[in-house]
């Protein structure tokens, strides 16, 4: 249960009758197993290098669903109420005094992880592995399914005019595919097999094509997702079972991503990647719609990417 906070004016005084009352910031809180509640979400003060962003598009990730259904994702455990969501884009409403590259009204996609920039991994440029990473909606850090958030300006990327806010929000899952292609060193002389035609498998397929891969085969256990993969340009689709034996593979791990937003936006702007067909369901930001959206995403079936329009 969260106490409703009274809106205060400058100097901590209540705003008088007839004056403009500021809108209370609301967010979708994960408050318990299978329980989401839209509750007040007080914002931190704006630092000199921060921006305040009004969220316009937020996608649901598989990790969000895991947190809802099990209160954990791998070793990350939800121990207290947490605002959910991390795939997001919005419009700048306020900038810190030291922010020079963004102005009020800019449309931006947000990279959700704030690294320390002091550890050895950060200094080596592998900031995605920072042990002190503060990542949207990864306990105990709050996420971005809210009316507004405050975020470092250097992690907000201005959207080109021909890239929509929904496409901006899709830069986060697309970044996983881009990072995977970089790690696998794919290119025009590489054929690619993608294991799984869920959202990440599909964006990895799209990224591989943008990297110049000539032939891509994708496998899954679900006919519908394989059909979508075929429509999106897979050269071959294979339905498999979970009882396959003797696939000899070398595994290179991928954890999040690094320095991917500029390339993602370049791919979207140029038309080398079209993520719009992946967005299969859209919902508004009401209590019922939040619940319905997560249930739709959790069911899978014909849902690929479920998007909130705030």
UniProtKB/TrEMBL annotation:
Its cofactor is Zn(2+). The keyword Oxidoreductase applies. It comes from the Eukaryota. SUPFAM superfamilies: GroES-like, NAD(P)-binding Rossmann-fold domains. Residues 32-308 form the Enoyl reductase (ER) domain. Belongs to the zinc-containing alcohol dehydrogenase family. This is Enoyl reductase (ER) domain-containing protein.
